[in-house]
Specification:
Blueprint (H helix, E strand, L loop, with lengths): L13 E2 L5 E3 L8 E6 L5 H8 L10 E3 L5 E3 L5 E3 L13 H4 E6 L13 H18 L6 E3 H4 L13 H6 L15 E3 L6 H13 L11 H14 L8 E2 H16 L1
Parallel strand pairs: 1-5, 3-7, 3-8, 4-7
Antiparallel strand pairs: 2-6, 4-5, 9-10
Helix pairs in contact: 6-8
Bound molecules: zinc ion (ZN).
Zinc ion (ZN) binds next to loops.
Length: about 250
């Protein structure tokens, strides 16, 4: 840490340094926040991994189930949480973001709920980051948003709607699910290209090929996990498309 024992955020009550960081590249200032679940059975195991020099992984902040928050890496340093990722033209997501690990066993643990005090702490931390760092609502992202083919965290049980109610993140009410898929794997043509264009406009890493390929399916699933979590299947049903249109509209509307 630049200053050994002072957290950058007043929401963090202590500093538990991780050696796993480097210097931020490029603009050098984070404009995004990436939220993760730890995906391990216990907080202790996750914290040990994030502080183990051999693991080569870390995050800036760590949020326990009881709402306690620790800082592991200083905000002006590049923590190693996103891995190979992409968002809105940025391939070095670690340099452009602040990483927050939220203790939760995740998909391997059958998606346990996030306790209320933990979500309250995550909200407080995100609000602090938004205010202090000027991070825009649409730049509060899931790890699955920036690495859709590799990652599913923080998962479809993560309460993005509760964060939005507290002023964190860009959110629109998901359109109700009604009927089967409009578009799905194997289809081609201008409607598929239009779907890809909306996903890319929001920031997802998908080519405007006009072909509903495996990457498109993974990106649609990532979108659903974040914005239409009632059904995560990578099929572009009417509800998914309507929710995406509304979200892109909200983005343009500022
Ligand atoms: Zn993650």
């Amino acid at each position: 840490m630049t200053d050994a024992r002072l957290p950058d955020s007043p929401i963090a009550s202590r500093v538990l340094p991780s050696p796993n960081f480097g210097e931020r590249r490029g603009r050098g200032r984070p404009d995004s926040v990436v939220l993760h679940y730890t995906g391990l059975p216990t907080a202790e195991a996750a914290l040990a991994l994030l502080r183990d020099p051999d693991s080569q992984v870390s995050a800036h902040y760590f949020v326990w189930e009881d709402g306690a928050v620790a800082q592991l890496v200083a905000e002006d340093k590049r923590a190693w949480h996103a891995g190979e990722s992409f968002w809105a033209g940025e391939r070095d997501v670690n340099s452009a973001s602040i990483g927050v690990e939220i203790v939760n066993y995740g998909h391997d643990g059958a998606l346990p709920p996030f306790p209320e005090p933990q979500i309250a702490a995550a909200i407080a931390l995100c609000r602090d980051l938004a205010e202090r760092r000027g991070i825009r609502p649409e730049r509060f992202l899931a790890h699955s948003d920036v690495a859709p083919a590799r990652k599913r965290d923080p998962g479809e049980r993560f309460p993005w709607d509760a964060l939005a109610s507290a002023g964190v993140g860009l959110w629109v009410e998901p359109a109700p699910i009604d009927g089967g898929p409009l578009f799905g794997p194997g289809q081609e043509g201008p409607p598929i290209r239009a779907l890809q264009a909306m996903l890319a406009l929001y920031g997802y890493g998908v080519a405007l090929s006009g072909v509903y390929d495996a990457r498109t399916k993974a990106v649609v699933a990532a979108f659903q996990r974040h914005f239409r979590p009632a059904r995560v299947d990578g099929e572009a049903d009417a509800s998914t498309v309507a929710t995406l249109k509304a979200l892109v509209g909200a983005l343009r509307g500022g």
